[in-house]
Amino acid sequence: MFLTFEGIDGSGKTTLSSAVAQRLRERGNHVVLFHKKSVPPGVDPYVERHLKTLGRLLWDDADRQPIHLLGNDHWVRIMAAYFAATTETVIRPALSDGAIVVTDNWYYKFIARMTINTAHPRHDFDDVFGALDRPSRTFFLDVDPEAAAVRKGHFTQGEVGKHQRDGADTADGFVHYQTKVAAFYRDLASEQGWDVISPGLRTPAELAEVVVDSLDRVR
Question: How many structural domains does the chain have?
Answer without folding.
Answer: 1
